[in-house]
Design a protein that fits this description.
Length: 152
């Protein structure tokens, strides 16, 4: 896989390949991704950057994870499997996420550097840390890491 190809081109290429090979679940989720990208480009009136596409993918990932939890609660085994497959497809276009340990290290570094000392600094800390970890860290994990560090 060539690293200099844009994310949008990669998604389109994979969509065409999945279409030819008859992989229905992959075609379906890639079609949704492509539609989201196209709608965003229309709103923005210009091509999206890879970072903007990653934001779209993160948003879709969260929606799919939420749907998965509902399907599990509702004991919808057929939809659970399909949604897990869709999640795997979306994840392959995103950078690898940070581990909890990595998030805590980044959080600690930013908190110390900015002299944040207690929970009143929480919102300022989370803004800086989310900007630093953009697209690679779950907000809930960042929030938990900040809380843990500031409470010490």
């Amino acid at each position: 896989m060539s690293e200099n190809i844009s994310l949008e081109s990669r998604i389109f290429r994979d969509y065409q390949k999945a279409s030819k090979e008859g992989r229905k679940v992959e075609v379906s989720i890639l079609r949704i991704i492509r539609a989201e990208i196209k709608n965003s480009e229309i709103r923005k009136k210009e091509k999206l950057t890879d970072e903007e596409i990653q934001k779209i993918l993160n948003s879709l990932l969260k929606k799919e994870e939420e749907a998965l939890s509902f399907y599990i609660k509702g004991e919808r085994a057929n939809l659970v499997e399909k949604t897990k497959e869709e999640l795997d497809i979306i994840k392959k276009y995103l950078p690898e996420g940070l581990s909890l340990e990595e998030i805590e290290n980044i959080s600690r570094e930013i908190i110390v550097k900015n002299n944040f000392g207690d929970m009143k600094d929480f919102s300022a800390a989370i803004k800086l840390i989310m900007k630093e970890t953009e697209g690679r860290a779950d907000g809930k994990l960042v929030s938990a890491a900040i809380g843990k560090i500031l409470k010490k």
